[in-house]
Amino acid sequence: MPMTVVVTRDVADRFRGFLSSVMPEAAPGVFVGAELSRGVRERVWTVLSEWWTEMPGGSIVLLWKDDAAPGRLGLRTLGLPPRTLADLDGALLVRR
Q1: Is residue 44 packed enough to be buried (19+ CB in 10 Å), middle (13-18) or exposed (0-12)?
Q2: What's 54's domain CATH number?
Q3: Which Pfam families match (predicted)?
Q4: pLDDT per position as a tens digit, 39-87
Q5: What domain count does the chain have?
Q6: Which tops the pLDDT comparison, 96 or 72?
Q7: Statement: residue 95 has pLDDT above 80
Q8: Looking at residue 38, what is its pLDDT?
Q9: 22 with 47: CB under 8 angstroms?
Q10: Three state DSSP letters for the chain
């Protein structure tokens, strides 16, 4: 089970309260799950996405180890311009 990190910025308390029920808040707005299963990670993202449609504001970034993704790092965002990861000759870049 890979490590999962969720970073929030300027979101409603509801989001942070939910996330803190699933994983510890290592720093303000930074939630870390050392061994979060894929099923739990997907459920967390589903809840966050559904709430986001009801009350957009701020931003949320979800990161996890994904062997099939560029740089072996999965990335999802809410509230930011869409970002994707790209591997350029071994350097991991973020496309905006």
Answers
A1: buried
A2: 3.30.70.240
A3: Cas_Cas2CT1978 (PF09707)
A4: 999 999 999 999 999 999 899 999 999 988 887 889 899 987 766 767 6
A5: 1
A6: 72
A7: no
A8: 93
A9: no
A10: CCCEEEEEECCCHHHHHHHHHHCCEEECCEEEECCCCHHHHHHHHHHHHHHHHHCCCCEEEEEEECCCCHHHEEEEEECCCCCEEEEECCEEEEEC
